[in-house]
Amino acid sequence: MQNKKILIVEDESRMRRLISDYLKKEGYSTLEADNGKKAIDVFEDTNIDLIILDIMLPEYDGWTVCRKIREISSVPIILLTARSEESDELFGFELGADEYITKPFSPKILVARVKTLLKRVYSSSKNILSFNGLLIDDSAHKVFVNDVEIVLTPKEYELLSFLAENPEIALSRETISTKVWGYDYFGDLRTVDTHIKRLRIKLGTQSHFIQTVRGVGYRFEVQK
Amino acid sequence: MQNKKILIVEDESRMRRLISDYLKKEGYSTLEADNGKKAIDVFEDTNIDLIILDIMLPEYDGWTVCRKIREISSVPIILLTARSEESDELFGFELGADEYITKPFSPKILVARVKTLLKRVYSSSKNILSFNGLLIDDSAHKVFVNDVEIVLTPKEYELLSFLAENPEIALSRETISTKVWGYDYFGDLRTVDTHIKRLRIKLGTQSHFIQTVRGVGYRFEVQK
DNA sequence: TATGTTAGACACAAAACTGTCACACTGAGC
DNA sequence: GCTCAGTGTGACAGTTTTGTGTCTAACATA
Fold first, then answer.
1. Residue A191 and which of A19, B101, B131, B182 are 20 to 30 A apart at CA?
2. Percent of chain A with pLDDT over 70
3. Contact B115 A124 (CB under 8 A)
4. How many Cβ contacts (< 8 angstroms) between chains A and B?
5. Of the spans A125-139, B54-68, B186-200, which averages the highest pLDDT?
6. Is A20 in the same domain as A110?
């Protein structure tokens, strides 16, 4: 649960700093954006685990950002607002926000909600992704195929994790490249293929987890 | 998302009735318990999808019920409390509650939270086109005929998606060609026919979805 | 510095897909 | 029935996409 990446979208730098400090103290890493446009850019280029989103923002308000992000992702979103009107809150939920916190709020409450939300969304309280014949222990950074550990290089591990965290979704080479290599990587997309090849070799009899989606990319497939 | 079973644990019958009415109006079914012991009994005997749990209860308070249920299940829990102390809220989250609502609350807010929580927990918010005997899962880029996956080539998939997204409409070869192959494609219109043929073969017993409209093109027909 | 490992690129091989065409078939109109 | 325009279909070759072996550079390690 540690080391999750949290994007803080807030135009007031003092508030941003405050939230960021509290979260870092809890072991999360944070990214910041001071307007809605930047928020969406950062989100598309990075593998964000949770978003804290202020409503009052320059360049797309929070509602808009929330809606746009919900079109492409189900990442958990916490809305922050100065107003505490019920209709606002209802509107936020309609747009797909997961939590709604009214300013002024206690940082402790915020941290608690972040924790709960991450826990609910990302784990059954463990950092282990377990499939039939394949186990990824993120805490230990170890992977087991048929209960035998296989040793992966960092990139191989990141790639496998990313795939396994998005099961049953056809992922394009571009998406994979952006999320695993980073938004600033402009290398050959076929590099993804090369790493897929290496992963498949190491997965051996369980390579069926990685399916090719012709014309698109790859898909992590759970059922045999 | 409808027809989910919600357990309301609350000792005041008026409040129980109020919540129950609101939820039923939204299409949920409700069960009620007026103390903690009964709540746990009911939960163990029934397939509950969400619990609304008051803190002040005879026979095990809400904290205890929450803890006991968390030992055996990860069902979503919303805590209700008259107090609004921060420490209480934090304690609730520690115990594994998913939401925390302070009385007095607006029933609308409650319903909104129930909805969001259910959606988050039970739906994968996927892009799925579903017909009787045919299912197109766009996220996974998979197609099922009578619950058996069929593997389509990229063009076949695009063509089927386009047809299925425009049901009951006679689509000319030109329209199909423009939308599926792109406006700058100037190949033989009969190519569409060839792909329709291939699709029909793969659809097997469900090929009736694709009807020929003589002199025009094809139509995706939903009813058998 | 020597050695071993990892990452990225690339070319070629292998596999899969696509468009075209010719011919068969169908059905509507006469 | 016959005609004919429109549609169905099988075959095939060219094209596209993916798989894979290998090379080089970067990097870490001792």
1. B182
2. 88
3. no
4. 58
5. B186-200
6. yes
Number of residues written out for chain B: 224
- Nearest by CB to B86, from A98, A109, A116: name it: A109
Out of A81, A98, A122, a domain closes at: A122
Are residues A54 and A62 in contact, defined by beta-carbon separation less than 8 angstroms? yes
A64-85 pLDDT, tens digit per residue, is 888 888 777 778 888 888 766 6
Q: Round and report the angstrom distance from CA (B155) to C1' (C29).
A: 37
CATH number at residue B138: 1.10.10.10
Averaged pLDDT for residues A173-189? 86
Query: At A124, is the pLDDT very low, low, confident or very high (cuts 50, 70, 90)?
Result: very low
B14 backbone φψ class: left, alpha, beta (φ>0; ψ -120 to 50): alpha
Q: Are residues A182 and A145 in the same domain?
A: yes
A69 interface with B at CB cutoff 8 Å = no
Helices A190-203 & A154-165 angle (0-180, nearest 10)? 90
Provide the b/e sequence for A60-84 (b: ≥16 CB within 10 Å): bebbbbbebbeeeebbbbbbbbeee
Please give the nucleotide, over all strands, whose C1' is closest to the CA of residue B217: D7
- Closest CB to A93 among B116, B137, B139: B116
Which residue is closest to A216 within chain B, CA to CA? B154
* Segment B26-47, tens digit of pLDDT: 888 899 988 888 888 888 877 8
pLDDT averaged over every residue in chain B: 86
Asked if A116's CB is within 8 angstroms of B93's CB, the reply is yes
Flag whether pLDDT at A123 surpasses 90: no
Q: Does residue A97 sit at the B interface (CB-CB below 8 Å)?
A: yes
Q: Does residue B32 sit in the same domain as residue B94? A: yes
Nucleotides of D under 7 A from a protein CB: 6-11, 17-22
Q: Per the structure, how many domains does chain B have? A: 2
> Cβ distance B160 to B136 under 8 Å?
yes
Q: Reduced to 3 states, what is the DSSP secondary structure of residue B205?
A: helix
Please state the rounded mean pLDDT for residues A47-73: 84
